[in-house]
Amino acid sequence: MTIKRLLAFTIIALFCCCSCIAQDLAGIWRGSLIQDSGGCFPVYNIEMQINFANNNLQGKSYDFYDTERLVQLSFSGKFNPLSKRIVIIENKVIRYSIPADCVPCIKTYMLQYDSSNHEEVLKGEFKGYAMDTKTPCPSGKIILRRAAIPVFKNEIDQSEELAEIQETLKLKPRKKELEKEMVFHTPTIKIQLYDNAELDGDTVTVLLNNRLLLYKKMLTDKALTLEINAFPDVDYELIMYADNLGRVPPNTAVMEITAGKQHYEVHMTSTLEKSAVVRFRYQKD
User: What's the rounded Cα separation, in Å, for the pair 258 and 202?
Assistant: First the structure.
């Protein structure tokens, strides 16, 4: 192969590689919302924490004037890799702390991805409706850039029922025993828990990064299933807390963890003195 052909091949390979990287939207995006007249504030800060897999997006958005005045919402969306256009739809207000005469706006964003100036940018427009009345709220423009560090802590999704339980839950502190550490290369992680041997009435409470995800659930031959959308370069710690020891101590389980083509089987053992722990993170290739 001549030097010219080798150079051309290298440039093409680098271009293809850069295109693949540019189209992985997972991570922190932060910028500004410029709303038309009639909004509570003319300009808002916004942070989007995006999980991204198979051209689908989901995550949380934070519209904020400052860290005390904010609206937190969940969203889902779709990315077109050919046109590099994105539609993001906010679907739920999680919490808000804003002036009494303001109402959260649930928005739809029409965005364009661009990296032509050696900087990744999402830019476009939005429209929406008021949370309480469903009347249209002022539309506007949005621009987002990648950010390394979030303003708001990345949180694990949790049902309202479990959130209410956790508010009053007081688990006795126990020693942690690490069973396994893992690194995954896809953000969608499936965790299944089974009883390890004889079905003897073992029940467990499971927390992920101290967020309650299973509460006093019995281990059987049918899986207790959790599906996690991991955020890149975030450390996750899953704790299996024994509620009892069953008829045959200790409390044991088989944990099967699947992320894309990666699959692990971990034997978990918890007692009234210690809790079994696994740690993992999603790391982009």
Answer: 23
Query: Is there a cis peptide before residue 250, judged by omega within 30 degrees of 0?
Result: yes
What is the chain's length? 285
Please enumerate in sequence order all residues whose Cβ is within 8 A of that of 84, keeping only pairs 6 or more positions apart, or say none.
23, 112, 113, 114
Describe the chain by its helix, strand, coil percentages, rounded to 5: 10, 55, 35
What architecture is domain 164-282? Sandwich (2.60)
pLDDT in tens, 113-127: 999 888 999 999 999
- The bridge status of strand 274-282 relative to strand 175-184 is parallel
Task: Return the residue matching tokens 């699959």.
Answer: 263
What is 23-147's CATH topology? Lipocalin (2.40.128)
Q: What is the pLDDT of residues 128-179, one digit of tens each?
A: 999 988 899 999 999 999 998 899 988 888 888 999 999 999 999 999 999 9
Dihedral sign, Cα of residue 248, residue 251, residue 252, residue 256: positive
Write the CB contacts of 15 (distance below 8 Å, at least 6 apart in sequence): none
Residue for token pair 């949180």: 155
- Residue ranges covered by each domain of the chain: 23-147, 164-282
Kindly tell me the burial class for residue 82, based on how many C-beta atoms sit within 10 Å of its own C-beta (0-12, 13-18, 19 or more).
exposed
Cβ neighbours around 79 below 10 Å, total: 21
